[in-house]
Amino acid sequence: MAEIRLENIQKYFGAVHVIREVNLTIKDREFCVLLGPSGCGKTTTLRAIAGLEEIDEGRILIDGKPVQDLHASDRDIAFVFQLYALYPHLTVFENLAFPLRATRMPDAGVRKSVTSVAEAIGITHLLKLRPSALSGGDMQRVAIGRALVRRPKALLMDEPIGALDAKLREQMRVELKRLHLENGSTSIYVTHDQVEAMSLADTVVVMHDGVLQQVGSPSEVYLRPANLFVAQFIGSPVMNIADAQFRQEAGRSSVVLHGEAFEIPSQALTMIASKPAKDIALGIRPEGVVLSHAESPGAHQVGVHLIQPYGPFDIVDLTVGTSTLRARTASGFVSGKGQRVWASLDASQAHFFDKATGASLGFRLE
Amino acid sequence: MAEMMNRLDPMSRAASRGMSDLAIRNLFVIPTIAFLIIFNIFPLIYSLGYSFTDFRASSSAPANFIGLQNYRDLLADPFIWSNFTITAKYVIVSVTGQVLVGFGLALLLNRSFPLKGLVTTLLLLPMMLSMAVVGLFWKLLYDPNFGMINYALGLGNFEWLSDPGIALYAVALTDIWMWSPFVMLLSLAGLSAVPKHLYEAASIDRAGRFYVFFRITLPLVAPILLIAIIFRTMEAFKTFDLAFVMTSQPTTELISIRLYKMAFQEWQTGKSCALAYIVLIMVLTITNIYVKYLNKAKER
Questions:
Q1: Nearest in space to B178 (alpha carbons), one of B243, B250, B107
Q2: What are the residues of chain B with a beta carbon less than 8 Å away from any beta carbon of chain A?
Q3: Contact A179, A148 (CB under 8 A)
Q4: Domain with CATH 2.40.50.140 in chain A
Q5: Helix (H) or strand (E) holding A255
Q6: Is A240-354 a domain of CATH 2.130.10.10?
Q7: Cβ of A52 and B219 within 8 Å?
Q8: Chain A window 78-117: which residues touch B at a Cβ cutoff of 8 Å?
């Protein structure tokens, strides 16, 4: 069990600056997910913590002890590779036993530890097989078992279920969560899949271009994205973002998106006026765009452009001025393309960003 | 319609591809098979027939069928057995040496360093020389009076090739020098085929250098290393030119030298055919044992 701290980590691949001044503390027993698009530096960060990649500057501390100059084998960290990296010539049992035998554990102890881990992850029936005889899901179970068998200080996982099909991924996600609750080892998990991140993490770390964008609980990054990147990366379907102008006339305040005005509380205008930002972008998730068939105060009549049925709900693209706005409705709420409905914005779900910096203005309306 | 005609006409299809299967067969496959039959298969069968006769190629007397007499004589001849013992010693020393040196070199070369390509090519040079040439200049290198080896090692007038106890090992050493690159080449291919992430996994699993070598590197390279060993054992078993050129001690009379003497100096054609068959069966047996191990290693 361990606390892991990264201090001012810098890493270059030739001229490419892949990790830029990363500072991060992962608390003991925490499940931390590094989330970001491909090439954002998340895997490199993970490999640097494990000691598979050297860093150019900064310190990595495990339980307060600097380890950046130690060899991977001296950091007492387990790592689960995306493509399993099982030893192809050894049976499942020997694969699980490898980390124990490598440190000369006596045979009886090896047997005991392997059996108990195999039971915990449900692969007892596979112990005599070789990896080539296993399915993808079972191979990943073995890889996770090999990581857990020696009770490491921390467990690092590099997109461990990325190569599995959707259904198996969901099942493995639940298993991983259960294993973490049972073992309680500090875990760092890399993924580009925000659903995985949200469902597994205690803390989500969003990375982009080698820079930490936001560190927070899943609900924090979802409800209070720190900038435009996080706002658009987290959440599916993607948040609507539009340039916004604010107007106040006849005691009613409104926001103009794509040339169409929607009513919002005047409180928003006062808040925005108090910020230094010049140009504002308004972000609103599809569930914040409210549709109705009857005219309601502050609503705006718009045309339906496209409907994507998801099962429990529909995602509807609306034509607003020159662009589209995406709304989430009860399934079957709109019947087809070209239908006219009344749209209004749920102001409590609006996010405001400074267009120049991309940073959130840091407030939400209640 | 024209397109369909095109498709049905084999000549135009062949023309568009360059050469038809038929042309390839006539030009390349048939001559190869013909040569193989004339120079390999036919003599093989013909000599099997001779091995049951008392035929002498030097005399005009007709060949008499004598059954298994040749085989019986050979297997009861203690001199032939001593030739086999010498050959076995030679094979073991030279193949072991080649595997140790070749695999060791491969381990050293299996990383990136400046001029790696050039170094590898230079190391492969001995293998590309002719056996007789190698034999001749190693004879000069070993020369007790002006040889470079004694000079470099400060051994004075050490007799490499005329000392009956040393000569065989001196020849084996030359063979090791010449053929270690072959083992190195195959081992390098095997080593670079071991996925890098396995080494990463092993270092995460806290395995030390030796543990990684014996538990990961060696088992994964074993199949290709076995192939190298098969080739080298077969070649070493039938070594002739190197030993023949370098020395003529009774202690370096390998089985193929005995065979040569029997066939072309003593002109015992029928008996030497029988000996050739005994050698063939031995090589096949040894190879079969290796192939069995190879299949076992490849199962994993």
A1: B243
A2: 195, 197-198, 200-208, 211, 215-216, 219-220, 300
A3: yes
A4: 240-354
A5: strand A252-257
A6: no
A7: no
A8: 78-79, 81, 83, 85-90, 98-99, 101-103
Residue A233 one-letter amino acid? F
For A162, the token pair is 């990325």
**Residue B108, both tokens:** 């050293």
* Tokens standing for residue B122: 């230079």
ipTM confidence score: 0.84
Minimum CA–CA partner of A77 in chain B: B204
- B23's tokens: 């042309």
On whether any CB of chain B is under 8 Å from the CB of A322, the answer is no
If we measure between CA atoms, which residue out of A54, A57, A46, A44 comes closest to residue A4?
A46
Three-state DSSP state, A160: coil
Minimum distance, in Å, between the CA of residue B297 and any CA atom of chain A? 9
pLDDT tens, position by position, for chain A (366 residues)?
Answer: 689 999 999 999 999 999 999 999 999 999 999 999 998 999 999 999 999 999 999 999 999 999 999 999 899 899 999 888 999 999 999 999 999 999 999 999 999 999 999 998 889 999 999 999 999 889 999 999 999 998 888 999 999 988 888 888 888 899 889 989 888 889 999 999 999 999 999 999 999 999 999 999 999 999 999 999 999 999 888 999 999 988 888 778 888 888 888 888 888 888 888 888 889 999 999 999 999 998 887 788 899 999 999 999 999 999 988 889 999 999 989 888 889 999 999 988 999 999 999 999 988 887
Q: Across the beta sheet with A203-208, what order do the strands follow?
A: A77-80, A154-158, A186-191, A31-35, A203-208, A211-216
Chain B interface, best mutation among A98, A129, A157, A159, by max B CB count within 10 A? A98
Domain A4-233 fold is Rossmann fold (3.40.50)
Task: Please report the DSSP string for B56-93 in residue order.
Answer: -TTS-SPPPB-TTHHHHHHHH-HHHHHHHHHHHHHHHH
Q: Which domains, ranges and CATH numbers included, belong to chain B?
A: 11-41 (no CATH), 70-299 (1.10.3720.10)
Domain with CATH 3.40.50.300 in chain A: 4-233
